[in-house]
Structures are given as C-alpha cells and as structure tokens.
Amino acid sequence: MIITLGEIVRWIVYGLRRGYYRLARWLLRGDRLLWRSERKFRSLLESAPEAIVIIDAHSHIALVNRQAEQLFGYKRQEIIGQSISDLISERSRAEHRAHMRGYMRDPDARPMGMGPALYGLRKDGSQFPAEISLSPLETDAGLLVSSAIRDITERREIERAKDEFVSVVSHELRTPLTSIRGSLGLLASGALGPLPPKGQRMVEIAVLNTDRLVRLINDILDIERIDSGTIDLHPRPCDGAQLIRRAIQGVEQFADQALVTLAAEGEAVQMYADPDRVHQVLTNLISNAVKFSPASSTVRVRCTRRDSEVLFEVADDGKGIPAGKLAVIFERFGQVDASDSRGKGGTGLGLAICRKIVEHHGGRIWVDSQPGAGSTFSFVLPAQQTNGSPPEPQVAL
Amino acid sequence: MSQMHVLLIDDEDDIREVAALSLQAIGGWKVSTANGGQAGIALACAARPDVIVLDVMMPDVDGPTTLRRLQADARTRGIPVIFLTAKAQSADLRGFARLGAAGTLTKPFDPMTLTDQITTILTREG
Question: pLDDT tens across B26-71, in order?
Fold first, then answer.
C-alpha cells in the first residue's frame, strides 16, 4: 500500500487535533474542579461562626470572611494585603509578633482558649479582648495561617462579676467560720476545761470538718481566680530541688502520721517559674501521694532537666488509678472515687488547680498509673525565661 | 519579761471574743479590744499596747485607713500592726505589706497557734 505524503500530514493533523481536544477537556475539567473546590472553601469560610483571618508567611492578610469584617469594622478590600498587626492593639503587638515567630517555626493546629487573650483593634480605634485559634494551611503559594478570632468582652465581664461574687461570698463565709473554728479549737484543746470523752470526740470531728470547709472555700476561690485569668503569677529564677525540699518539709508531719517516708531525689535544677505556685503544685501532689500510699512505703519526688524543660515527678506505691479515670483525674471533682474526698479529706479540686497552675506556666501535667502498681504524677515547666517575658504559653495568635 | 499587751480591733463581736480568749488562755497575754478603727486609734493612743491586731474590712474606719492614722500619730507610730483578715489573696497580702503592716494573719485562724503566729511576726520584724 502506498501512503502519500498528504495522508501522513492529514493523520498528523488529526492526531494533534484529538490530543488538543483531550488536553482541553482535561484542563477544563480540572479548572472546573478547582473552581468548585474554591467555591466550597469560600462558602465554608463565610458560614463559619467565628471571624476568620488568613495570613501569609509574611503576616499579610490574604483572606477574611464576613464575620471578620463585622468584628473589625473594615471592608475586606481595605485590609487584604495589610499587615495582621493592623488588627492587633498596640499593647499586644510585641507579644503577638513573638508568638507568630514561634508559630512559623513550628506551625500546628492550636485550639481556642488555651493561649493568652490578645487585644484586637477595630477600624474605629476601639479594642477588645480576643481569643484565637490557629491552623496552618499548606498551599501552592506557600504556608498560610488561618486564625479564628472570638471577641470575649462579654465573657470577661461575666468572669469579672463571677470573680467578685466568689470573693465576696468567700469573705462572708470566712467571717462566721473564724468564730466557729476558733471556738471549737479552744474547746477541743482543753484550754477551757476538760470535756467528757464523747463530747471531746464530737468537737474534734467538728474541728476537722471546719478545716475541710475552709480548704474547700480556699480551693474554690483559687480555681475561680485561675479560670478568670486573675491568678497572680510571679515567675523568677528558682531551684527545682529546693522547691521539692520545701514542699516535703511542709508535708513531713502528715507523712509521719501516715507512716510514709518522703524521699527527695535529683540535684539542683535552675528554672524560671513562680516558686510559690510550684510549691503549691508539689505540696498537692505529695500530699495526695501520701494519702493513697500504704504504711511503710516511700513517696519519691524528683526533678530533672530535660532539654528546655524541667521535669518533676512524684511517685507512690499506692493503689493506682483505673485506666478509665486517667482522663478525668485533673478535672474538677474528678476523683477516682467520690468518697475519696470525704475519706481522705480532699476537696476534689487539688489536681484541677495543679493543672491550671502548670498550664499557666506554659507546662503540662499528666499521670502514669496502673491499678495496684502505684502512680507517678509528672509535670514539666519551661526551664528558662524567653524574650524577657515569662515562658511562652502554648497557644497564640 | 513583762506581760504582752495586745490591742485587738475588729467589728465582729464573736471574733473579738474568741481571739481575745485565745490570746489570754493560750498565751497568757493582756488583751484590750475595740470594735472599730476610730475606737481602736483612741485606745491605742491611751493604752500604748505592744502590738495591734487589726481587721481589714470594718464599716466605720477600715483597717488600711486605721493603720495610716496610727502611723501618722507620733504616739502610736512605733507600735507594730498585724492585719487579721479574710482577704487572703496573695495580691492582698502584698498590698498590706506595702502599707507598712508588720504581717498578716488570715481568718479563720487556729486559736491554739495565734500567739505563736503573732510572736513569729514580731520576732521577724525585730
């Protein structure tokens, strides 16, 4: 068969045409998918209940939703391309910049409510306390960061009112308790004359329970203050081992009564934290360990430097914690057994307070335990001060 | 050593009675009492106690104002003042120290150790 040059040219043209149409169809379909995907993304963005601001790696605003326009008072065309700093109050800018630098080094999803509240700045110059969550978005154009921003002005006001209420109630409860505790203490001591044995026992029970009530009031006040952000943290350089010794001294008498030995392990470890609050955490963990330890056992307390953190551990040979309870043990009234608070004289708030204090330092607290094999409560705190300010909390805008 | 003389200023009758009994029965101290800041200042000028234990929240003249007036009067300036308060937050305690109080005791107090706590504060103050 003879194939003419014309036929060859025709086939080539035909093939090229088919290829072109296929390529065009493929491109059109891809474009359509891309367009659909983008439309879905924008629809999701606009339907989000929170104000969303998406910034690029240079902290320039790339995208905002309607809620963000309403929250900050800008039209989107006014702020897209501007620096995110334009939406941050002057008083929060330095902190924000420091956090963003840290975030860009290690971008991961950071949920709302765990970081410090920064102050947002509206177009009209007014400010508002804001809570922020962060999510990294990997795109062809590079890393973007999506921030969901919540105005917490109203919540702050409620918290302030609640804090004031708790403070007043606490004061009003303490005043009559002072007379009750004082009277019972004098009676129980025998300073006012001997009581019959049953009367003596009853007064002693009343003293113990009055003290428990006082502890409960103190703990409630403490946890409410931490929750409302009015906790007083005064971080400064301190020695972890010294804090352990001080905490052990405070619990020693109680441990002696329970026939439990306290052992401090480890050497001096320099750190930057509020020593009074770390002492509070250690005292709480060591007291708990003693409460749940069998007689003649030892509670071991130690601290060690671990990279940029200081690790504290309080280990006991007690009855341990069931796996199902490990997740709630740091919640308020999250005891293994509700009768624990009655039987062991606890308030059910101690571990929740410990967790709050540790988290306010930018640290973490956890427990390793198996029923019958004892428990080890551990917490880590940042070892050093960063950027002339307290260690960076875990979450930031 | 002569008997310690304490002036106790608190608007709560029951607390005054319990604290006075505790200081007398446990410490063997002499105790004078006043039910408010104004009366307390007058008694302090007249009786010159060794130490003043002062409530913070009182309706007529509150504790901080009473302290300032005591410090302003040459007759009472040298008497150490210890706050006795139900306001036990660390910020409150630092505030009391800044006012010039020798120390702070928190309510509720243990009547068996009240004299010891006052003695410790006075010893620390030197």
Answer: 999 999 999 999 999 999 999 999 999 999 989 889 999 999 999 9
Q: Which of A372, A365, A282, A273 is nearest to A318 (CA)?
A: A372
Give the pTM.
0.59
| Partner-chain residue, chosen from B19, B86, B90, that has the shortest CB–CB distance to A232 | B90
CB pairs under 8 A between A and B: 69
Q: For an interface test with B, which of A172, A175, A177, A211 has the most B Cβ atoms less than 10 Å from its Cβ? A: A175
Complex ipTM more than 0.85, yes or no: no
A395, pLDDT greater than 60: no
Distance between CA atoms of residues A236 and A275, nearest Å:
8
Per-residue tokens: A243: 């804090």
Tokens representing residue B29 in the block:
């101290």
Cβ distance B57 to B68 under 8 Å? no
* Domains and their CATH numbers in chain B: 5-121 (3.40.50.2300)
Q: Work out the angle at residue A280's Cα, subtended by the Cα atoms of residues A276 and A286, and round it to the nearest 5 degrees.
A: 135
In angstroms, what separates the C-alpha of B113 from chain A's closest C-alpha?
A: 10
CA dihedral A189, A193, A198, A204 (to 10 degrees): -20
Please report how the helices A153-189 and A197-227 are oriented relative to each other, as an axis angle in degrees rounded to 10: 160
Residue A397 predicted with pLDDT over 50: no
pLDDT band at B121 (very low <50, low <70, confident <90, very high): very high
Distance CA A295, CA A55 (A): 59
